[in-house]
Write a structure and sequence with these properties.
This protein is α/β, with parallel strands linked by helices. The chain has 16 helices and 13 strands. It has 2 domains: 2-162 and 355-365, Rossmann fold (3-Layer(aba) Sandwich), CATH 3.40.50; 177-350, Glycogen Phosphorylase B (Rossmann fold, 3-Layer(aba) Sandwich). Helices cover 42% and strands 15% of the residues. α8 packs across α13 (317-328) and α11 packs across α14 (331-348).
Length: 377
């Protein structure tokens, strides 16, 4: 089968999908909608994947580019002649495919596109509904995405659910003694945050709670990865509270280096306001790390409080602070949670096994026994 994989940008998630597809029986073509400035993934495309050159993929897409992009996308479809288009997020790449009238379309939700963006405005809601009406199969990574799609009228039987999962060999329990020794943090209690510094991920809330907790726990340290539009705010909070010597600002980290940071941490923390099945959460679980995460639906599908970690009320800085203080004193519970975390990852977050669901989605989308387009009243 000739598969056109059409994504917004080039991220570590895209690399994993394309690498796995390259090892399948399908002939894979890759189309990139835009380039948003940050170097999100530094690994080259698998050699088996053919990148398509077109008007898109060079810079951020602007509204005035829409007509030219649409026309050139239709040219791409004529040249590539795909048997199936796998596209996402819903309101960008999948929407453009739907607008071009291509079938069968496998639309892949990236979590927040359905859980948050779909209700962001009348325009975004219309784009979501338009795309779902023309989607053959929807791929979702959590029940919350499925439920949201069904609320738009999308048939539940056309949703294929699978958490994307992680490489359980790469992300595995281990030690990072040399790294901690270099930081001088061998005897400290280390938190890990690696979400982008954007409002949706709540890193500002996490840093504020950390600043308050650090006043009561001298041993508290923070590995803070990533960057983003809230950079000035994050640095301001750290400087104001005189915390720069208790935080390691790692910036953007390659996939090969990432496991070192998980292993160096005592607790993974995420204050995200919207997520499906978070890949970084699954990576932390796979590394045997207990977690403390916001109680949004996507996280609640993974974490049983007191088993693999703990939940706190989304957006509540006081609740996060109280949880940090409480978890710090639970040495034995942390060890047990780490063991349970790895067990959960082995059961539900195995990328090799979970990827098979995508191939099933392709088969379902190409099934000739039903109409490709979904009829939503």
């Amino acid at each position: 089968m000739r598969v056109l994989y059409f994504t917004r940008d080039y991220t570590p998630h895209d690399y994993r999908f394309l690498s796995a597809l390259a090892g399948s029986q399908h002939q894979v073509f890759w189309l990139r909608l835009e380039r948003r400035g940050l170097q999100l993934e530094d690994r080259p495309l698998p050699p088996e994947v053919q990148q398509i050159s077109w008007r898109g993929g060079q810079s951020i897409v602007r509204l005035q580019d829409s007509a030219a992009l649409f026309a050139d996308f239709k040219r791409v479809l004529r040249v590539v002649k795909p048997d199936l288009v796998h596209a996402g997020p819903i309101q960008t790449s999948a929407f453009l495919t739907a607008a071009a009238g291509f079938q069968p379309l496998v639309s892949m939700s990236w979590g927040s596109d359905m859980l948050k963006d779909a209700d962001g405005s009348v325009w975004m809601r219309w784009k979501t509904l338009f795309t779902l009406k023309r989607t053959s199969v929807l791929i979702g990574d959590c029940q919350a995405v499925s439920q949201k799609a069904v609320s738009f009228g999308f048939p539940k039987e056309r949703v294929v659910l699978f958490p994307w999962g992680v490489d359980l060999q790469q992300f595995s329990p281990g030690r990072a003694d040399e790294f901690l020794q270099r930081l001088g943090w061998q005897d400290q209690f280390v938190l890990l945050s690696l979400r982008s510094w954007e409002p949706i991920y709540g890193v500002d809330l996490l840093v504020r709670a950390f600043a308050r907790a650090a006043q009561q726990i001298p041993q508290l340290r923070l590995l803070l990865l990533g960057g983003g539009s809230q950079s000035a705010l994050i640095h301001q909070i750290l400087a104001k509270n005189d915390l720069l010597d208790r935080v390691y600002l790692a910036g953007q980290v390659s996939q090969n280096e990432l496991v070192k940071f998980y292993r160096a941490a005592d607790l993974y923390v995420s204050a995200s306001h919207s997520d499906g099945s978070s890949v970084s959460l699954m990576e932390a679980l796979a590394c045997g790390k207990p977690v403390l995460v916001s109680d949004i639906p996507g996280n609640c599908e993974w974490i049983t409080p007191g088993r693999e970690g703990w939940l706190f009320q989304d957006g509540n800085e006081d609740a996060l602070l109280e949880s940090l203080l409480r978890v710090y004193d639970q040495t034995e519970a942390l060890k047990e949670a780490g063991l349970a975390a790895r067990a959960l990852a082995e059961k539900r977050a195995n990328w090799t096994e979970n990827f098979k669901e995508l191939l099933k989605a392709y088969q379902l989308a190409c099934d000739k026994t039903y109409d490709k387009a979904v009829r939503i009243n």
